[in-house]
Amino acid sequence: MITFTAPMWVGLLIGFIIGGAAEAWGISNPETLIRLAKWEDRLFLDCILIGFAIATPVIFGLYAAGVGFHWSPKPLYVIGVGLGGVLFGAGLAISGYFPGSIWMALGEGRRDAIYAVLGAILGAATWTIIYQTPAGYWLIHTLNFGSVVIGGEKVSTYVIQPFAGLTRIDLFLISLVYAAALFTIAYYMPRYKGGARSCLRANVEKRMTPLEVQKHMDTAEYLTDGGLPYGEKTIAKKVNEYYATEDNVTRWFMISVAGVVGLTVVLEMFLHQIFGESTTMSWLAGQLFLPDYKYSEIVFKGIGWEPFSDIGTLMGAFFASIFITRRFTSFRNIIPPSWAAKFGNNQAVRFLGSFGGAYLMLLGARMAGGCASGHILSGGIQMALSGWEFAFAVFAAMLLVAHFLYR
């Protein structure tokens, strides 16, 4: 089996790629995830599914050919993962952030991300305290089925053992069916509420409805609100408004970003580990406040390149927001439109929402053992059952909370 382990600093480069790509994707802006929670703009979901459809057959195909990966599907402890997903989804709907996008938002110069970092560290610290209590033990160990994926289970760092009667070739064939199903959903699920086509389908058919064009221009407006100026013939104009003209050269930009993110996760699993973002918050909480707690000791012992990749994520988003998208806001007071429509432009209220939502989100992420990066993105590419349970819990809570919060 071909294996390799890269040094920790390589995480900076991995984080830089994903941070830059996701900033261009619009994930740094909390309004993007709030609109997802309101089920108004499903770009994030469409692109994540496309990323899975591209990356999953690649990783399982290479695995069948003898390439070894640092597999890390999260353990499936049903109650803790489900409850953690509910808290995570509620916090996401309130704040508009998940752990990785907080670092991206800092790179993009968003002021409320500062408060999100503080709330996230406190949320991670809360789980560190809960972990060694009877309640924490019960959440982790009740109905714990281990690190299970569709068709197999992890038995060591480099080995996903297929279930009885299956081979690695069978896992690859399963991944093809898995990818086809996810690609079909991504192709036919409209991006915008009231729209007719996903990004991919609009590109293939080379047409959009007037509502979709209007929605896209509205998206470009909030993404660039408070950002740096750009000219008519610049790359920023093409990236931010690429759907406005049918023959624009960046028509496939968002789809390409989905593939880049998915394949980068495959690369990093070969080099060192999965892509995860929330562990850094627990590491910070342990270093700052709770160094002698059991959970902190576990994190200190098992921490990988997450702090490096988070720094790289921030740097990549900063680079993209300055030189590509021109969305750098210079830490001005920019309130997400959906939040402002419901709660007004008061800075203190927005900062409370950013802090409190991030607190819930990180508490849920650490309870579940992973976040949108470790559970949903990395877990989905590995066909991890825990990742899918977490994703369903996140989306259910996110949609419910957003319905009552922003209606």
TrEMBL record:
Name of the protein: Uncharacterized protein
Taxonomic source organism: Sulfuracidifex tepidarius
Cellular component annotations (GO), alphabetically ordered: plasma membrane
Entry keyword set: Cell inner membrane, Cell membrane, Membrane, Transmembrane, Transmembrane helix, Transport
Pfam families: Sulf_transp
Keyword Signal: no
Compartment list: Cell inner membrane
Coiled coil regions, renumbered to chain: none
Topology versus the membrane: Multi-pass membrane protein
Family matches, as InterPro entries: Sulf_transp_TsuA/YedE (IPR007272)
Membrane spanning residue stretches: 6-22, 43-64, 76-100, 112-130, 171-189, 252-275, 311-328, 349-368, 388-406
